[in-house]
Amino acid sequence: MIDIDAVERALDYRFNHRDLLCLALSHRSNMGLPNNQRLEYLGDSIIGFFISQSLYRLFPQLNEGDLTAMRARLVRNTTLASLARELRLDKYLIMASGELKNNGRNRVSALADSFEAVAGAIYLDGGIESVNQFLDGMYRTLLKDIQPRGLKDSKTRLQERLQKDDSLLPVYRVLGQEGEAHSLTFEVSCSVPGIKRAFIAHGRSRKAAEQAAAERVLSALDEQECDD
Amino acid sequence: MIDIDAVERALDYRFNHRDLLCLALSHRSNMGLPNNQRLEYLGDSIIGFFISQSLYRLFPQLNEGDLTAMRARLVRNTTLASLARELRLDKYLIMASGELKNNGRNRVSALADSFEAVAGAIYLDGGIESVNQFLDGMYRTLLKDIQPRGLKDSKTRLQERLQKDDSLLPVYRVLGQEGEAHSLTFEVSCSVPGIKRAFIAHGRSRKAAEQAAAERVLSALDEQECDD
Fold first, then answer.
1. pLDDT tens digits, residue range A135-149?
2. Which of B37, B52, B176 lies nearest to residue A197, judging by beta carbons?
3. Between chains, do A41 and B52 touch, taking CB under 8 Å as contact?
4. pLDDT: is A73 or A184 the higher one?
5. Scanning every residue of chain B, which has its alpha carbon at the shortest distance from the alpha carbon of A102?
6. How many CB pairs lie under 8 A apart between chains A and B?
7. Closest by Cα among B78, B58, B83 to B138
8. Which of B37, B42, B175 sits opposite A197 (nearest CB)?
């Protein structure tokens, strides 16, 4: 059904157990059949680890807050979905017909899940070395181009973006703080006119928590656009 | 200053670069000095990966929702802090004097951070094999004893716990839902009388999201008790 050889060429990896690759491409819309959600759960943690250690080594001068913000950008669904598109996984996804008619192959969540599941499958099939090599290749350009600087100003980026859309300004609210003077954690919400849900984030300072909340809104806006 | 030999015996690991171990034990209250927060960021992702793949292999019949819930219990701060106590890391934490006076050695967040940072340090020092071996030893009992069953009923456990405390019942509210019929995600908040913040969680069904939100409240209540 799927042209396994073509997928393997795109991945630059040859499976010992090709059923793992098929499973990784099985969308959860296939009711009653095995799907890729367990592999996605596994792949998610592998990618998190890969990106964490890559950024740790690439940016020895950055603190954990900046590293965490950069990691969030590299592992969010829109990024994973674009990597899936590079591999043309959209072409190979096994989906229920209703989902297909619904433009399912272009859905960000389906693409992101398939990328994570493929990473999980390569790990199970070939071990940590194989999956690291795969992720090295996929993330090479993103890791080369990523800049910590821009990240510091998620609030500004959010504000500019909302003004472009003729919306009003985001509203930040401190929901709470925990801990003693030296180890405070702030919880902040960011609400945006026109979006019903509030975005909540944590940080070691009010400002850091606000930046993180703004970053979450930006990610959600990105996903919205890609899903449209 | 620290008895490195004693710590290494507790960890059952001998460092090639002992400065990594010292860094892992340096609390962020040491203003202006290097601290363990970057190592904690790294260790967090290593532990997440270790637990994810352990649960994946241990419970081949469980879906990703149950696996995610179990992982949350194994990597939450109270669990990490108790592992740190087993290693007696509280004795060896390097802290500012103000933090020490403030009972800093017993703070859950400080202990959890130190455990994660030690895992990060072992990874940098000895590679993935060494840190997996370390985590295998530390998590052996927890992984042997963990039961998926109990997890399904976080709402019940929360309700029982609140009634014991003479509080009122938790209130669940659906904040929103996203996606099409086959790939819905629900966002639910859980509010508890007496706790100012709301706990928000996501799930593939309303019920799953409510269970996840209840689990978050339980974790927060655990941490509160340990910090008291």
1. 999 999 999 988 875
2. B176
3. yes
4. A73
5. B180
6. 114
7. B83
8. B175
